[in-house]
Design goal:
mainly alpha, Growth Hormone, Chain: A, 3 domains, two-stranded antiparallel ribbon, disordered N terminus
């Protein structure tokens, strides 16, 4: 295995920049929706499709996009995704009517899926050593976690100063810079070939099924959970995904190989991620609304109110999470983070209609920063722990799909619960603000239950040390992202398969201690 070189970090920064541009766009657009509606004449129902068109394309194509990265080369698919996203952003900025904007947003979703689905797979390839990989994933996870909060502030500022079209125009120079940097910095890699493993029927069934599922979920706010439209979309999704499962059993080259699903802890990690993201996504939306409707903050103040969370996430994920994962394992770090997340949601579940930001909200925001800084890199490490070079793109696509579907389900479910509880309190004679606060408290309590369920999954189903092949074949890595006795790492960096490290590591004696197989430098 090659030792880590400085050139890897520019490549990582390119991938993080692509992720940040795509994630920022989602939260930026949500802030600009009122201005878009006024300018283009959207109906209230039609306006939702500015967001939904993107989500349907993005969530539906992630799995296929990840597999295409394995077959065609992940660098090539990343470049195609960033290029398409940038061109679609230009189309959004030039849109003169609702139909054109919705179509361009669908194009952004396709480009975003192509770029995001292969990014984690490229990080696995760039950083085969578990300690360095944990740090790299922590940096990448930070860009995703912080992007949504920063986008809320940026969207308000751009829309206020230059109009809603500027939120799309700003992607043009950024996208161009990412493309140029990607061509120079991302290592070229050859896929296995377009005709060596593409299960076309399986790809069509999976993509159509995921799109139908996302379509049904995002429409619940408008149509309700029991409407014929929602039930029909869910039934169609179940039928298509069931057909996909049958297809995978008989296909000679399945889109989702059974060997990937048999990786110890992979399904458990994705399940924990689904529950965790469902809680986090719903919390961000509900709290943003509550701060304005109940506590009386304006849109700009609401954006700034979220800032402590990404700041703390930055400190934890960039400064501590990688080292903690390398020392104690991703499973332990994930459990600790989920416990903190539950505390944060329980703090919000006490927020009354006459509460204040500093006393009642800020402590929870700090706790969420700690929780996010630990859980996001840890669960991503677990979801990618067993990925080999042949299917790293597919594992990346699966992890991203879990995030998107989990977020859509969580947002729809928690918003519905909050609205239902508020309606009940109004019917009982409660004042408007008291009824709204009561609905949000129920949603936060359910979110706490979701992260506790994720914690139980992590404790009960994620193995402590499920052996998995390292991508370069140099030695096994446990499911916690730590190296076993055949491939120790010290606290400062990796050593190669023969136990030879860098100049600094050569001067040290490395000894393995305890059952976990953690490496500790002595002397």
């Amino acid at each position: 295995m090659d030792r880590v070189t400085p050139s890897r970090w520019p490549a990582l920064l390119v991938l993080c920049a692509g992720s940040l541009m795509i994630i920022l766009d989602g939260s930026v657009v949500s802030v600009a929706l009122p201005a878009v509606q006024r300018d283009l004449g959207f109906t209230a129902a039609g306006l939702a499709w500015v967001v939904n068109a993107y989500l349907v394309a993005f969530g539906g194509l992630l799995l296929l996009a990840g597999r295409l990265g394995d077959l065609l080369g992940r660098r090539r698919v990343f470049l195609a995704g960033v290029l398409l996203f940038t061109l679609a952003s230009a189309a959004c900025a030039l849109a003169g009517g609702p139909a054109l904007l919705v179509g361009a947003r669908f194009g952004q979703g396709v480009g975003g899926a192509l770029a995001m689905a292969v990014s984690l797979g490229m990080i696995v390839r760039l950083y085969p050593e578990p300690a360095e990989r944990a740090r790299a994933i922590a940096v990448y996870s930070f860009t995703g976690a912080a992007g949504a909060s920063v986008g809320t502030v940026a969207g308000g500022v751009l829309t206020e100063l230059a109009g809603w079209r500027s939120i799309f125009l700003v992607n043009l120079p950024i996208g161009a810079a990412i493309l140029l940097a990607a061509v120079r910095r991302l290592p070229a890699e050859r896929g296995s070939g377009p005709w060596t493993g593409l299960d076309v029927p399986g790809a069509l069934l999976a993509t159509a099924g995921l799109m139908a599922a996302v379509l049904g979920i995002v429409g619940t706010g408008e149509h309700g959970w029991t409407s014929p439209r929602t039930l029909g979309a869910v039934a169609l999704a179940a039928l298509l995904l069931g057909g996909f499962a049958v297809r995978q059993r008989v296909a000679s080259t399945p889109l989702l190989p059974s060997r990937l699903l048999r990786v110890p802890g992979l399904l458990a990690a994705n399940t924990a991620q689904f529950l965790m993201v469902a809680a986090f996504f719903g919390f961000q939306f509900l709290l943003a609304v509550e701060l304005q409707l109940v506590l009386g903050l304006d849109a700009a103040a609401t954006g700034w109110a979220f800032l402590p969370t990404p700041v703390v996430i930055a400190v934890v994920s960039l400064g501590l999470a990688g080292r903690l994962i390398a020392r104690w394992g991703a499973r332990t770090v994930l459990v600790a983070g989920l416990g903190l997340a539950a505390v944060g949601f329980l703090l919000l579940a006490r927020l009354a209609a006459d509460g204040g930001y500093l006393a009642d909200v800020l402590p929870a925001m700090v706790v969420f920063g700690l929780a996010g800084g630990l859980t996001l890199p840890a669960v991503t490490t677990l979801a990618m722990a067993g990925a080999t070079d042949a299917d790293a793109g597919l594992a990346s696509g699966l992890a991203n799909t879990t995030q998107q579907v989990g977020g859509a389900v969580g947002l729809a479910a928690l918003a519905t619960l909050a609205a239902s509880r508020s309606d009940g309190l109004r019917a009982a004679g409660q004042a408007e603000l008291v009824a709204l606060a009561g609905g949000y408290r129920v949603a936060y309590a359910v979110a706490a239950a979701l992260v506790l369920a994720a914690l139980l999954v992590a404790l009960g189903l994620v193995p402590r040390q499920p052996a998995a092949a390292r991508p370069d074949g140099d030695g096994p890595v446990d499911g916690d992202g730590r190296v076993d006795a055949d491939g120790p790492v010290d606290g400062d960096g990796p050593v190669d398969g023969g136990g030879r490290g860098g100049r600094r590591a050569a001067k040290r004696r490395v000894r393995l201690t305890d059952d976990a197989g953690a490496a500790r430098v002595i002397g």
